[in-house]
């Protein structure tokens, strides 16, 4: 089973690139983030014509997550996280596909920091950690896939100095990520590339793509039962270089 995490940065604007990816790579499951689409305007027909069933949790103009499954409809388990009933952001969607529990996650960016957006990021992280702990308790194959907006290690960025004041690399953000991992999750891409230097995001500004000035913020975390099935993990970097591409590249894990 090949599971891809893909922040599309606007599904309507990137739909041709997404359909290309589905047609050329044929992943079994795709977790999308940053749809920037309401539930009503999600392009379900185009997705189904490409051979995929879908569930989605949209929000007009912002956020939004979806899970696509090749030749099947994902069975929804949960949308949204408990803990802040007033939180209307569409950032979490959980489903089951072929016996694997899969979540599509779009963690808050947190900039500017310090401030309320950064505080919200850390609170959201704690809510995610609570859900992750409950999922581990099910003792099943689980994949938490998404844009975590965290540069976890110094070798996950082209320049520590350039990102030093960014919310993605603050000690509190890194510590929240490490606490999540310490529950027993495996960072699949880190396992595959322990030396770092693998990017999943390149900004549109300042020629970042052309300079390969990127960083790794898209992660697929595996429960112990999923980690036992790990075959490979990687980044489909070439798709970032296509015309009108997302600023993220599809990031994936292969399970037996």
UniProtKB/TrEMBL annotation:
One of its GO terms (molecular function) is double-stranded DNA 3'-5' DNA exonuclease activity. Residues 5-248 form the Endonuclease/exonuclease/phosphatase domain. Gene3D superfamilies: Endonuclease/exonuclease/phosphatase. SUPFAM superfamilies: DNase I-like (SSF56219). Its cofactor is Mg(2+). Keywords: Hydrolase, Magnesium, Metal-binding. Transmembrane segments: none annotated. It is an enzyme of class 3 (hydrolase). It comes from the Bacteria. Its EC number is 3.1.11.2. Belongs to the DNA repair enzymes AP/ExoA family. This is Exodeoxyribonuclease III. The lineage of its organism: Bacteria, Pseudomonadati, Pseudomonadota, Alphaproteobacteria, Sphingomonadales. The gene is xth.
């Amino acid at each position: 089973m090949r599971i891809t995490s893909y922040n599309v940065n606007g599904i309507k604007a990137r739909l041709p690139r997404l359909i290309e990816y589905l047609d050329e790579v044929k992943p079994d499951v795709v977790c999308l983030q940053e749809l920037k689409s309401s539930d009503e305007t999600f392009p379900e027909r185009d997705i189904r014509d490409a051979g995929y069933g879908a569930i989605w949790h949209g929000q007009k103009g912002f956020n939004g997550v979806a899970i696509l499954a090749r030749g099947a409809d994902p069975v929804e388990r949960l949308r949204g996280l408990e803990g802040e009933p007033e939180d209307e952001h569409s950032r979490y969607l959980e489903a089951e596909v072929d016996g694997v529990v899969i979540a599509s996650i779009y963690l808050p960016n947190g900039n500017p920091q310090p401030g309320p957006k950064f505080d919200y990021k850390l609170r959201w992280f704690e809510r995610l950690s609570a859900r992750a702990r409950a999922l581990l308790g099910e003792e099943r194959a689980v994949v938490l896939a998404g844009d975590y907006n965290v540069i976890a290690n110094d070798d996950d960025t082209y320049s520590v100095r350039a990102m030093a004041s960014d919310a993605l690399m603050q000690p509190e953000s890194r510590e929240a990520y490490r606490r999540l991992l310490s529950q027993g999750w495996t960072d699949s891409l880190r396992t595959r590339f322990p030396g770092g230097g693998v990017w999943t995001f390149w900004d549109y500004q300042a020629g970042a793509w052309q300079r390969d000035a990127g960083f790794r913020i898209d992660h697929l975390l595996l429960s112990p039962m999923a980690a036992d099935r790990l075959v490979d993990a990687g980044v489909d970097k070439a798709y970032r270089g296509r015309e009108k591409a997302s600023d993220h590249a599809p990031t994936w894990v292969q399970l037996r």
